[in-house]
Each structure stands twice: as structure tokens, then as C-alpha cells.
Design brief:
mainly alpha; 3 helices; 2 strands; 80% helix
Length: 101
């Protein structure tokens, strides 16, 4: 049971790290949308490549996220990621801690 416990705790930590890192990328993307960055810059292209596919899927499934030129897709994605982090990841972490005790 110790191996399962350590596995759950490690996977929960990795998920939490990935969610926090992607949240940072989303926030950077939102700030970049306020200015006019050079689209040929490597950093801008990397951030766009990481976020735009997810934004596109959310915009196509939930068109009410964009109204009057205001795009709330990054905010909605951040809320979903934090809910996933708070519910699923924390449940995995608590389960792993409970198994090890």
C-alpha cells in the first residue's frame, strides 16, 4: 500500500504543478492580448501555441464567453482548472495521505 500511496501523492503533485504552470501561461497570454506583440517573436508564438487550441475549443462550444469584444475565455479556463485542482487533485492527495497513515 505504501507504493500506491506514494504514487497517488506524486501524481497529485505533478497535476498540481502542471495546472499552476498552465495557469501562468494563460495569464501571460491574457496580458499579451492587451498589447500588440510581434507575432513572429518565438515567445509569443510559444504562448499562442499553448493556449489558442484550448481557447478555440472553448469559444466554439461556449460562444457566450465572447461578447462586445470582451473575451472571457481565459477567465473561464482558469476557473475550470482551479476547480479541477481543488476537487480532483486534492482528493487524490488526501487519498494518498490516508492510505499511508
Amino acid at each position: 500500500m505504501l507504493i500506491l500511496s506514494n504514487l497517488l501523492i506524486t501524481v497529485a503533485g505533478l497535476f498540481s504543478f502542471a495546472i499552476n504552470a498552465y495557469s501562468f501561461v494563460i495569464i501571460v497570454s491574457a496580458f499579451m492580448s492587451w498589447c500588440n506583440p510581434n507575432p513572429y517573436n518565438g515567445f509569443v508564438r510559444a504562448i499562442s501555441a499553448l493556449t489558442e487550441p484550448v481557447f478555440y475549443r472553448l469559444r466554439s462550444r461556449f460562444p457566450f464567453l465572447v461578447f462586445n469584444g470582451l473575451d472571457l475565455t481565459p477567465v473561464a479556463l482558469l476557473v475550470v482548472l482551479q476547480l479541477f485542482n481543488g476537487v480532483v487533485v486534492q482528493t487524490m492527495l488526501q487519498l494518498g495521505q490516508r492510505i499511508s497513515a
